[in-house]
Target: N-acetylmuramoyl-L-alanine amidase
Amino acid sequence: MIDWIKNNKIGLSVLGLITLTTFLLVLSLSQQNQLTTRPDDVPLRKGPSRTSKQIIAMKAGTKLTVLKRQNGWWYVKDSKDDQEGWVASWVANNTFLKKPTALSEATIVLDPGHGGSDTGAMSYNNKYYEKTYTLKTALATRKDLEKTGARVLMTRSTDVIVPLLYIPRTAEKYQADAQISFHFDASGTHNSASGISQYYYNSNSLSLVQSLSKSLNNLPLQNRGYDSIPYLVIKDVTRPAVLLELGFIDSDKDLNYIKSTSYQEKIAKDITNGLYNYIQSN
Model:
């Protein structure tokens, strides 16, 4: 027997390696279908939506088996009492939330206007581009929203151009609760206009634009109000969508705010508050 083992050492080593690899693969696959809730009171729902009826609120540490997945929502089974339902995976897996907020199960798409070769509007001296500050402001908003536990998706997070027809696809694919497009206005004449505006098109976006407009009243620039205009990015989408013009980049007064990190963070906070109120009401 000892001689046989010596003569077949290489073959046994290969067999052992294959057996170990197979075991680790099976273990990995089984663990992919296991989930342990992290925050307290994670909602278990009847359907894959924050508006679906809640079955129970699960305690932190509840062990679940994942049976299927759908756009970030997971259909799970409680390993202890066999209760089944849907959870928002980004909420159940959240490592810093103690309890979900009203926004936690929401999916928000942020669309920083322009990008890449499309600079958007420019300052009077052509030194400052709209695309730069739409991205900075959207990223600040993402950071603020993620503190609530919300799932935040970006149409772009770097200086690239996204074709207008592609922008609504993210909101449609993930059935977003809101799509927000960031822009900065230009009047075409130096220092001839100032202020912020909000736009929507479809009727299902009216309450969203109203909530955001009210919250943005806190900004230091005059709120010129909201209106309905068929901009492509808010027209060709079935999900609630708004477009925000957050100052005139060819106004020296507005540009000083637009370039300011504190202004961008103020916008982020006001949008988060507006979305919080909107989600609670819808």
Q: What stands out?
A: The radius of gyration is 25 Å. The chain is about 35% helix and 25% strand. The CA atoms of residues 163 and 269 lie 28 Å apart.
